[in-house]
Amino acid sequence: MTVAAPEPKVNMGNPVPRYDAVVKVTGRATYASDMPLANPAYAYLVTSAIAKGRVESFDLAGANRVRGVIDIVTHENGPKLKELKLYSNGGYAGTTIQPLRSADIAHDGQIIAVVIAESYEAAREAANRVKVSYTAVVPSATFDSPGTTTAAAKGQNSQFKEDPQVGNFAKAFEDAEVKLTASYDTPTQHHNPMELFSTSCAWIGDNLVIYEPSQYVYGLKNGVAEQLGIDADKVRVVNPYVGGGFGSRGSMTPRTAIIAAIARRLNRPIKLVPTRDQGFTIATYRAETRHEIKLGASRDGKLVALRHEGAEVSSRPDPYCVGGTKTTTRLYACPNVDSLVSIVRADRNTPGFMRSPPEVPYLFALESAMDELAVKLNMDPVELRRINDTTNEPIGGKPYTSRSLMACFDEAAKAFGWSQRSPEPKSMADGDWLIGYGCAATCYPTQMGPSAARVRLQRDGRTRVEIAGHEIGTGAYTIIAQTASERLGVPLEKVAVFVGDSELPPAPVAGGSNSTASTCSAVMMVCDQIRQRLFKAMMPNQSLTDRAKETVGIGQTPATRAAKSDRSLDLEKAFDALGAGVVEEYGEWKPEDAPPDSFQAMHSGHVRLVGGHSLKDKIAYAFGAEFVEVRVNRFTHEIRAPRLVGAFAAGRIMNPRTARSQLMGGLIWGMSSALLEATEIDQRTARYVNDNFADYLVPVNADVPGVEVILLSEQDDHINPAGAKGLGELANVGTNAAVCNAIYHATGQRIRKLPVRLENIE
Length: 762
Ligand code: MOS
Fold this sequence. Notes:
Helix content is 25%, strand content 23%. By secondary structure, the chain is α+β, with helices and mostly antiparallel strands. The structure holds dioxothiomolybdenum(VI) ion. Dioxothiomolybdenum(VI) ion (MOS) is lined by residues 215, 245-247, 250, 353-355, 357, 511-512, 729.
């Protein structure tokens, strides 16, 4: 079946097919572990079977008898690496728990030994024969486990700067005509990208090449160099394709430097491909969260008081938290707001970014509570959002740069057929199936980071764009090529794009949905430098007007497309005037409000994104609305979600096809987080139980028969030169609440704990 590409509307680019489509569908895309290595040895990890305690001894006799074993590395003979620093404390690492440093075990599945052998099979066989004696201590698994400690996030996590507050919540809530207090829970989830957490390392003299799926090649390069105590210029990270990230590859995990150090010691390239279950404990994950929401409103639906209290689990040493109150306290107009985020320390691996990290759990709580409030008010939930829509965020009063929330609600409602809904719960059915309609809002901060690019234009129009961005399956190659093609007026097929290599000019982490805004803004700027050089060559005595910038030498820009047909002629004239074979420009772009040391941070892999509520005089978010139909079987309580409809506005849409694919993926993640995805933790042992694709449920096509994405036109000149708001994580937010709101409508049962399974329906 072929699906027609979406028609572009105002402020949208062409829906060109994926730049990397053919190599991907023909299996020719080289992922990190596909990279050829000369005479590699193979590594296999041995991971801890207990969550807390220490290794007393290893019995390696059986393992060493396996033919082909080269070395078994443990804390007793392991490489001496520098300490890890958490990325939020000026380091690169997603955890400070460093394996193989001592006998101590801080979490289940911690790396305790690495077996190196002539083949993968030999390494695996030997790893399975490693016998470990432990002294185990009873671990704290999660919320309510004995031995956990709880403290406010503010003050312990340097990324979490405020518990937003305004007005007098207590008094306003007390006096409110209508009140709601409700608690919500979200589960542990694991990223589970298709590509495993592989690492291949090869030394060429003093220089290290790392092939590893990464969402931040500059961070990984600098982080590994720091841990090994070598110059960052000696480390190169390469990954032209990344098989999904979901946040798991934004910060450095401990395995890479260990593998690099062993490769150096053995003077041999090493390839590590850990197993699916090891991925649950050697990388990060989304921690479980708890929320209490209090809403106070007037009878006519105006919010007068809002309080959001959240708690999140983290590891013993690392104060990771997502702190989504920065968003939930600013989404709706409300004069009296209070919030508090706490971190609960347990004996777990350190959590980290996962798919819209703050907004997914925190908006689940808020958007469920808004639906509950609408029921209390006997009001349409869309109207409740309209009444509380705002142009300025309520905490600091800053204006949203653009906000199409209600336009999204209206478009999605129309496409969904919301007006056919009879509001009474359990009032709609089809045979044995109760039907429910639900909706929710989404928003996601528009974030950006400093980014550099190098662009080379040849006389015949061939163009090469180099930028250390990342293709994690989102369409980065495609939109970077489109940006250069449009800006230089060269045909798309003449543009070659190079990403995923730390030898290229730096770009930020491919996270926080910033990549399009950051990389396209940099590429646009550098293409303009090329225009200026050509212009000066052709018209040395004229100063550069804006119009000239748009037209010089190049035919196929928006301004000149209609007027000029033979663009190659213009280019040749310009090159003749310049007297050069190629024009190459390098440039560094940084967003408004970026700190003064931004470029330095960019080169050393320390990019901090700016945007969202942290901008000085404004607040920038993308918005959307999701509508979901669920069907709940009266007898079996089976829950299906046959229709997901979302409308989204995210500034300039560079490519409606890739944008739709990302938003579709987001809607599916959101449904999945409502009904499927959860990591089960054994409360006694603090171990993940369902660490495989048979038991960790992810959606398949049959789970999502109908997904509709509507893109709204939106122009925002206050965010970045590309005019783009990120949308990779947008549709994932709120959809879980929309599903639960639909389940309430179908069954009359309000379920406040995710995921919702058939046993949760009474
Ligand atoms: Mo994402 S969780 O911003 O990689």
